[in-house]
Specification:
Strand content: 25-35%
CATH superfamily of the largest domain: Pleckstrin-homology domain (PH domain)/Phosphotyrosine-binding domain (PTB)
Distance between the termini: 22 Å
CATH architecture of the largest domain: Roll
Number of domains: 2
CATH topology of the largest domain: PH-domain like
Helix content: 40-55%
Largest sheet: 5 strands, antiparallel
Number of strands: 8
Strand order of the largest sheet: 1-2-3-4-5
CATH class of the largest domain: Mainly Beta
Amino acid sequence: MATAAGAEYQLHLRPNISMGNRGFVRVIGLSAFFLALPLIGVLGTPVLWGLLPFLGVALWALWYALMRNRTDRESLQETLRLTRDEIELTHITPRQPPQHWQANPFWVQISLREKGGPVENYLTLRGGGREVELGRFLSPEERATLHDDLSRALRHLR
């Protein structure tokens, strides 16, 4: 989301969270069903009680991994603030301190490497003696659109 307030632009980036609550329930339910299918053959035998703990641990591990991924994705964000005097980027990742970068927007160079970067349409900002990545969790098309929008905003402020 980008907003313009006078000569100030703010951009808040968050990753897409593609699996909602219904998808979560479906994945856990289907996994429980398919993990329990082999147990039909051992119903009524002592082997069932030996296999049930493994089924429970497998379902718990799947639940834990999905919940951990969801909370990590919800806490991941980037905030860019652009004024005539300063451009500031804050990258927040789970279980790590926030990373800050700031520079004079007049000297900032925005770069989009379509090929040759770690990912397709690798978007970086260079200034203040450092080069930082922007939109690392966005799709290549979203990074290209972000490049165009941010280039336009930088030209407007200069």
